[in-house]
Amino acid sequence: MSFPLLGKKQQCFWIAIGQCRLILLLLFFNISPQLPDGQDLPLPPVILGELGKDPQNPTVCFYGHVDVQPAKKEDGWKTDPYTLTEINGNLYGRGATDNKGPVLAWINAVETFRAMPVNFKFVIEGMEEAGSLGLEKLLEEENQCFFSDVDYIVISDNLWLSNKKPALTYGSRGNACFFVEVECGDKDLHSGTFGGIIHEPMTDLIALLDSLVDPTGRIQIPGIYDSVTALTEEERKLYESIEFDLEEHKNNSGVKKFLYGTKEEILLHLWRYPSLSIHGIEGAFHEPGIKTVIPAKVIGKFSIRQVPHMDLSVVKRQVRDKPFLCPNNLKVSMPLGAKPWLADVNDPLFKAARRAIKTVFGEDPDFIRDGSTVPVARMFQTITQKSVMMFPIGAADDGEHSQNEKISRHNYIEGTKAFAAFFLEISKLHRRLHKTSNTETNNC
Ligand SMILES: [Zn+2]
């Protein structure tokens, strides 16, 4: 049964989920990228849903996505990627863990209640694998409406660090990409005619790139570490109990030796310290054989995985000030500057999820971060200013984006129970906190 149209872009539906009736508000955002022939390409709608409006209850908003990476049987799948197939307790299929499985687990968790202990909202999009096109605009437009009464935001779009031990994710590094362009003139030159008498752009660029990071991985840009948050004792302790197989991680990478020898050092440098990687040089001669050319213009490309609260303005300044580049033209730009995301593990969200996991899985979760960038978490946090947590249910070996992606039946079922237990825990915790703050206000 459909509701009357709310506007050109919005449509409202009732759908029945178990005992409950869930209102789905479909928002069709008109952000249509243009094809080369000038045609608009309409984006799939983002689905916003809500259930319950009890002012005594906290409002939890869940985010997930239902688009997937491409998959073909001939890529090396042992089953049809678009037919969910159970083999030895694992459910194989594209999107099983990323992210249709967790989306369904949340819906299943909602179904278990006759009366929900929380007000539930959700955001389900279909453009995540293509960079969540349109989502930021939606969040901005709905911030004062749909998100205005949301207390907590939960994202289930990542994996545990281990195959067996549950985890909660509280941070991710950002990604700032830099281009350094060095140019000596408007045409390439012959090394027999000009080699030895000019400042070659490639030589300058390589010297510059070489000065950015040393062989121990330490970034050599002065001031870059000045604003990196210091490691606290409480934070260091989180690393001790984390389940992480260093040897397996090394074997998966194919390298012989890491820069650090202990689990703690490896995770700290992967998650909460910055790293600088040099990716390539545009304009360099890279084909097989010999070519005695001096390129007139080369562009070095490097990136910094940034952490809170680094000041990246020092990068451009320091690179521009390199003295040996004086005679050549130098341009430094930052075409991408995705910021890091960090949540407070003492937030009620994390306390409630920890209790829920302990109840269902019988052990405390690992508190983990991600060395890559999670733009969605940062986007929700920045725009809505609400508490954000990532609550994965997939195991480290689920193979998201890979052939034979799966989620285990065990993780799917226990994950659903953990989500349901989370509703109860966050409701209890929120009411208690609310009561305390009310009492404090009354006492004033
Ligand atoms: Zn995903």
SSE layout and pairing:
Blueprint: E1 10-17, E2 20-27, E3 46-51, E4 59-65, E5 85-87, E6 90-92, H1 100-111, E7 119-125, H2 135-142, E8 152-155, E9 167-172, E10 175-183, E11 189-190, H3 191-194, H4 201-210, H5 233-240, H6 246-253, H7 263-271, E12 275-282, E13 293-294, E14 297-305, H8 313-320, E15 329-338, E16 341-342, H9 348-361, E17 366-370, H10 375-384, E18 387-390, E19 406-408, H11 409-443
Helix pairs in contact: 1-11, 9-11
Bound molecules: zinc ion (ZN).
Detailed description of the structure:
The chain is an alpha+beta fold and 444 residues long. The protein has two domains: 11-172 and 340-443, Aminopeptidase, CATH 3.40.630; 175-228 and 273-337, Alpha-Beta Plaits, CATH 3.30.70. Helices cover 28% and strands 24% of the residues. It is built from eleven helices and 19 strands. The protein has helices at residues 100-111, 135-142, 191-194, 201-210, 233-240, 246-253, 263-271, 313-320, 348-361, 375-384, 409-443; strands at residues 10-17, 20-27, 46-51, 59-65, 85-87, 90-92, 119-125, 152-155, 167-172, 175-183, 189-190, 275-282, 293-294, 297-305, 329-338, 341-342, 366-370, 387-390, 406-408. A seven-stranded mixed beta sheet has the order 1-2-3-7-4-8-18, sandwiched between helices. A hairpin with a 2-residue loop joins strand 1 (10-17) and strand 2 (20-27). It is globular. Zinc ion (ZN) binds next to loops. Zinc ion binds next to loops.
